[in-house]
Automatic annotation (TrEMBL):
This is MFS transporter. It is found in: Cell membrane. Keywords: Cell membrane, Membrane, Transmembrane, Transmembrane helix, Transport. Gene3D superfamilies: MFS general substrate transporter like domains. SUPFAM superfamilies: MFS general substrate transporter. Residues 31-429 form the Major facilitator superfamily (MFS) profile domain. The chain crosses the membrane at residues 28-45, 65-86, 98-115, 121-142, 162-183, 189-207, 316-334, 340-360, 407-426. It is a multi-pass membrane protein. It comes from Terrabacter carboxydivorans.
Length: 444
């Protein structure tokens, strides 16, 4: 079986005494390390999923939904802005320095949550968490795209996001049981402290720079046969990359709006679902189960959906995933029992798994390697801006009409986003008809 040119061993630009090579098999050690690092990044987020909404209500007396969701608003704004900067800095200074900086910012977060005497401290912790997540998660995405080359991009993003959100799920589950056994503080956040220390150590001592891999791919970049990207050359300014990714280029801009809406409904799930379940009399331990089911299915599902997008293409997997999320949100709004909420949360996770790695892969398909990190950063700015939009929208609607009404509004927006993808986005994966090198998990 022939291998795509992008997956063959090429070494015109050695780093030290190591030749630069593209492909999953050729870079499996560093790729696996980056998967582990991203799991730790996800764990930092997971420490809050079950506990923080309950902490705001029970320890700080926040009764208004908008006030309770303020931590997600701060997190989303900080992460969105930092995503944009992370892409620019990764192109300018290299990937590894940005990764290390992100972990340094993460270290104080669990300590602030443990010692917080007021909700303001929690907001400061989430500002730092947003900055940290924007730096660390963005750059691990870019580094994996650098390493694997075009043919296995969807599979690589599936592994990346599976590791991150699998860790979110496991940590949400464990912290729920820790909170039920030992209280809301400090036990659940001690996990986050361990994650930050380990992530910083691995990033400093073991992770290698990958910017030369992107330069190698750029040197052999082949234009699409259909001529779609002829106007997207390798010398775009920061402003031009922003305009193309956000508004002008149909696939990039469609992915950006879908990413925003996806994280809008994730912000709703993070901030209001625990309150909805607690109001129905569900125990903290069972709330932890419900908070874990959604990211667990999301995380594991991406192991399948990322690779499927390399075979089937991106567009319809994204559109169908948005519609499945909308259906699941409607199910959560209608349900009133633990078992039904488990089913709806699993469907929400499945829909998100169809969308999340596929959107990232589509950005990698279209963006030129010379400005891909910037485009990924801009896409993630819009996507994670959805946390802020979702927190604000869900809080306002929940205060005015109730939590279930907020869920219905977000379900309608999610369905509409799928329609936009179906109508405007084109298929981005032009390798999908070519044989893939190494169909197994460690293929090149």
């Amino acid at each position: 079986m022939s291998r795509p040119a992008s997956d063959r061993t090429v070494d015109p630009a050695p780093v030290g005494d190591r030749p630069v090579r593209l492909g999953l098999r050729q870079n499996i050690a560093q790729f696996t390390l980056l998967v582990a690092v991203n799991a730790l990044v996800g764990g930092m987020l997971g420490q809050e999923r079950t506990v923080l909404p309950l902490l705001g209500e029970q320890e700080f007396g926040l009764r208004a939904y908008t006030a309770g969701l303020s931590f997600i608003l701060v997190f989303g704004l900080a992460k969105a802005a930092t995503n944009y900067l992370a892409g620019t800095w990764a192109d300018r200074y290299g990937r590894k320095p940005v990764l290390v900086a992100g972990w340094l910012v993460a270290v104080p977060v669990p300590l602030l949550l443990i010692w917080a005497p007021s909700w303001t401290w929690v907001l400061v912790a989430n500002l730092l968490l947003g900055v940290s997540q924007g730096l660390t998660w963005s750059v691990t995405v870019v580094m994996k795209i650098d390493l694997v080359g075009p043919a296995r991009r969807g599979f690589a993003m599936g592994l990346n996001e599976a590791a991150g959100y699998g860790a979110v799920a496991v940590t949400a589950l464990v912290t729920g049981y820790l909170a039920q056994s030992f209280g809301l503080r400090p036990a659940p956040f001690l996990l986050g402290l361990a994650f930050a220390a380990l992530g910083l150590g691995l990033s400093v001592l073991a992770v290698r720079e990958t910017r030369e891999h992107a330069r190698l791919e750029a040197s052999g970049h082949v234009a699409r046969a259909d001529g779609r990207h002829d106007h997207l050359h390798d010398e775009l300014t920061d402003r031009e990359v922003f305009v193309q990714t956000s508004f002008r280029e149909p696939a990039l801009s469609s992915a950006s709006q879908a990413g925003l809406v996806n994280n809008l409904n994730d912000g709703l799930a993070w901030g209001l679902f625990p309150v909805l379940f607690a109001g129905a009399g569900v125990s903290v331990g069972r709330i932890g189960v419900l908070a874990a089911v959604y990211p667990a299915v999301w995380g594991v599902g991406q192991l399948v959906t990322g690779a499927l997008s390399d075979r089937w293409g991106r567009k319809w997997l994204i559109a169908a995933g948005m519609w499945l999320q909308a259906l699941a949100l409607a199910g959560i709004a209608l349900a009133d029992a633990f078992a039904w909420w488990v089913v709806a949360a699993a469907l929400l996770g499945a829909g998100t798994a169809m969308v999340y790695p596929t959107l990232l892969a589509s950005i990698g398909d279209v963006a030129h390697p010379a400005w891909r990190a910037r485009s990924v950063g801009i896409y993630r700015l819009w996507r994670d801006g959805g946390f802020a939009v979702g927190a604000l929208l869900a809080g306002v609607v929940a205060d005015a009409l109730g939590v279930r009404a907020a869920v219905w509004v977000v379900a309608a927006l999610t369905a509409a986003s799928g329609v936009v993808v179906a109508a405007r986005m084109y298929e981005t994966h032009h390798y999908r008809h070519a044989p893939l090198a190494g169909d197994g998990a460690t293929g090149g």
